[in-house]
Amino acid sequence: xxxxxxxxxxxxxxxxxxxxxxxxxxxxxxxxxxxxxxxxxxxxxxxxxxxxxxxxxxxxxxxxxxxxxxxxxxxxxxxxxxxxxxxxxxxxxxxxxxxxxx
Length: 102
What we know:
Elements: H1 4-11, E1 22-24, E2 28-34, E3 45-51, E4 56-60, E5 64-68, E6 73-82, E7 86-92, E8 99-101
Antiparallel strand pairs: 1-6, 1-8, 2-5, 2-7, 3-4, 3-6
């Protein structure tokens, strides 16, 4: 079992090429939000996130909330560029943490 904070810490390192792919047994939301509290849409980062068994690359370059239904493989998340800090977090719709990784 992976502690959620460990996965969060790993993705902050720019240039990490490959992390484990996770499949959650519950719905999850990931959020990427600009840190300027007067304008949370001021998002100055470029992130690639792989989704699905084929690891389809999705680009995040604006303030975003990503819905991940139960059973969807996700990660790695590669932070390619950061010009301004941003908030990353996740909400897991479960009363327990349980992942399958490959």
